[in-house]
Amino acid sequence: MAVAGHDQGRGQGEDRGHDRPTGPTDHPGPGGSEARRPGGGRYAGGIGELFTTPTDAPGPPTSPANALDTPGTPGLASSLPGLGSLGLGSLGLGSLVEEVLERLKGALDVTGRMRLLLEAVVSIGSDLELRGMLRRIVETAVHLSGARYGALGVLSPDGDSLSEFIHVGIDEATAAAIGELPQGRGVLGALIASPMAMRIPDISRHPQSYGFPPGHPPMHSFLGVPVRLGNAVFGNLYLSEKQGASEFTTEDEHLVQALAVSAGVAISNARLYESARRREHWISGSAAVTTRLLSEEDAEQALTVVADQARQLADARAGIVLLTEPDGSLVVRAACGEGLHGAEGAELPARSDAARRLRAGETVFLPDASPRAPLMTTDLLDPLGPVMMVPLTSGDEVLGALAVGRDPGRAAFTAEEQRLAASFASQAALALRLAEAQRGRDRLAVLEDRDRIARDLHDVVIQRLFATGMQLQGAARAATDPDVVARVDRAVDELDATIQDVRTAIFALQHEPEAAEAGLRARVLREAGAVTVALGFAPAVRFVGPVDARVHDPVARNLLAVLREALSNAARHARATAVEVSVEVAGDAVTLTVTDDGVGLPDGLSRRSGLANIVRRAEALDGTAEIGTAPGPSAGRVAAAPEEPAASEGPAAFEGPAASEGPATAPEGPAAASTPGADAVDRPGARPGTRLCWRVPLHD
């Protein structure tokens, strides 16, 4: 019935074709016929063209085997022009219907796949996040082609291998068992070398087949299509294992090629968007670093800020700042990132190619940061994968380098990232210079303020203390009560000690804190502070003369060892309630005196144990050491009632400014001496106490 109806329609086709208006979907077929789609549409080219096969041939008009034409009776094949070209003359009615339905099914399938392609193009083009877009492209290609597995291999910057491999169809457990992702060898490499569509029925039989690693699922049929961005190849779509067929068809190839063209445009747009966003990110980061550096007082912390910000901007695991040393090596001064704790101080040798290129102002790319990499001779960056090192330049000077590194297996840094990092490094180097200049100005302001305080102390405070001491000495001469004289003399002694402390403070104010911390005076104070807990109190410490300026190693080192031993003995054996330490530089010698008010030395102990070492140290430096009971009032100062008498050292004990300001005795360093309280008095004979006097010559 279907055939008869079709035959009737064709019998009047030419007469009615001129009467009926032709719409936009009308496409005349052979002999004026039109092939209609289900629902009233028409197939372009007519049904004759749609269903023609290479094996179709017109049957003989008089063949008795022709079920549609019988001898002497014009049948369907002869009455329809061109029908013989369909090969219908050799088909039975049932076969004809099956053939028509099969062809219609194929046409509908093509229409559905085209609709899916258009939907995929729209979906891909609306996504601006590159990483997610690449995965969506692979998933769409798999769906359109009917493949079981799919992947997109992104070419490396040199175009010879794959830098990324986004795959679909293999679960995470299988991927982990396979291990390393493909690098672009074998059949994949053939498509890289010749970027043209490639269909292979069986991968294993291809001459460039590289084989599969253990655990890899079996793959046979293959379809590869390049993805281009303009004239450059961005990567390749790889599809394998056509489902329901032994190999991919030409139609599959054309669909995937169309998808690849659309994907190339979408990728270009996404890369432009990502590039603009990345530039904005780096510019914002540079501004933030500059602000932090100019407000940061600690230089080391400023370097840490640079390293951490660079790590975040580069989407890296590690950020490292290296500074150039006088010998040409680069030393790590700040490191941020997992697994880099304690990296500060590590060195990139001056002889390494990386160090030489950085000193020349070149950027260094390392695909592998292990010592086996061609530019490295150290394991400094061993836990990292791709590394980019850019010089920190200020003007024509290379201050150091900024290094950022990613995890092994991550994509290498691109040329655009290098340009952004270089700009960031230049900005950071300039900010470091500005921050250093700012800190220099701040230090200068502090030093000027310290100088002012020192002048005030010298010109006002010391003069008033000296005048007070002179008045007290005059009052002592006029007094007749011995107890009053003793008390006045002790007050004069305290004023003398106070003047010494003020002079020490003046000297400390006139010198850099960093220099003072490294000097002998600071080290002596640290040794004294270290025994405070063991003693139960803080020892009194006094300095006289240019201690830091004239006492250097090996004398300073031995003096500290002697002081450590003396304080340890006082804490363990003396049961003292007061300990005094004095370091005095006078003439060509330095004298260390340690006095306590303890129980004294047992008989025979003075030449044994650590005390013998004290003597040997002095003798090795051509000096002397005296250890014994503290004589007279030097036995120590202990807290006592004010009414107990004490020996007086007489008016001559007070020193005025003129008597102690010469260069040989000018005190230096921070004021740290602790003096006895106003109610402390000498207790000669109360307990024997111990006195160590260690004296060695100085050789300037």
UniProtKB/TrEMBL annotation:
SUPFAM superfamilies: ATPase domain of HSP90 chaperone/DNA topoisomerase II/histidine kinase (SSF55874), GAF domain-like (SSF55781). InterPro entries: GAF (IPR003018), GAF-like_dom_sf (IPR029016), HATPase_C_sf (IPR036890), HATPase_dom (IPR003594), Sensor_HK_TwoCompSys (IPR050482), Sig_transdc_His_kin_sub3_dim/P (IPR011712). Residues 7-21 have a biased composition (Basic and acidic residues). SMART domains: GAF (SM00065), HATPase_c (SM00387). GO terms for molecular function: phosphorelay sensor kinase activity; protein dimerization activity. Residues 38-48 have a biased composition (Gly residues). Residues 129-277, 298-442 form the GAF domain. The keyword Cell membrane does not apply. Residues 1-78, 624-700 are annotated as: Disordered. The keyword Kinase applies. Residues 639-678 have a biased composition (Low complexity). Residues 555-700 form the Histidine kinase/HSP90-like ATPase domain. It comes from the Bacteria. Keywords: Kinase, Transferase, Two-component regulatory system. GO terms for cellular component: membrane. PANTHER family: NITRATE/NITRITE SENSOR PROTEIN NARX-RELATED (PTHR24421), OXYGEN SENSOR HISTIDINE KINASE RESPONSE REGULATOR DOST (PTHR24421:SF56). This is Signal transduction histidine kinase.
